[in-house]
Amino acid sequence: MGVCVSVHTVERALADEDATARRTRAAIATAALRSRSNATFVLHGTLARADGVNRNGRVYPRETLTREVSAYDALRVKTGRAYGRLEHPRASDAVRFRDASGTDGRETSHRVVETYWSDDGKELYGYVEVLLENAMGREVLAIYERGELLGASTRSWSGLEVRGDGRTYVDDDMELLAFDLVRNPSTVSSHAHGMLVPVDRAMYEWPKT
């Protein structure tokens, strides 16, 4: 797994700052990284968390999430096809919601290029390449240039089960489709308040597909 040294510096700074200072730092970091990263914009942060209750009141069981991430890695990440969108499609439109092919460049904003787990196996981190050749990718860049941050949110298809502890659990039939970029992520994380931060492309290399 690759390690980007600049990630930890940025995330520590973001965690210690208030919202105004955080927006200012994000905008400055975005401009600086864009000036020397060969027209590539990369984000890093938390993609998902296992066993914890998210802001939507749901729990992704560790065994189920680990299984789906492994399949997602093999089928999508390692083949360069781990595409996502800016904000989730409506779940009521099942065909559009389940389409993670990335063939519609009008709606595709990014692709996940690597995932890895925290030491305790509960928090999934990842690197995300923003696709600046697409309109939605340029919108993501514009959001960061304004000093705002986005988080990652799991787009998956599954049943839900309310268990005896009163919590709503994602069923074992879960199918992980994509990680979308959203303004209000449901994942609760200590990593830069759960938001994705810009990192230096030059410090992290992956195979181009």
TrEMBL record:
GO terms of biological process kind: proteolysis
Instruction: State the superkingdom.
Output: Eukaryota
**Is Protease one of the keywords?**
yes
InterPro entries given in the database record: Peptidase_U9_T4_prohead (IPR005082)
A GO MF annotation of the entry reads: peptidase activity
Protease in keyword set: yes
**Which keywords label this protein?**
Hydrolase, Protease
Please give the name of this protein: T4-like prohead core scaffold and protease
What is the species listed in this Swiss-Prot or TrEMBL entry? Ostreococcus tauri (Marine green alga)
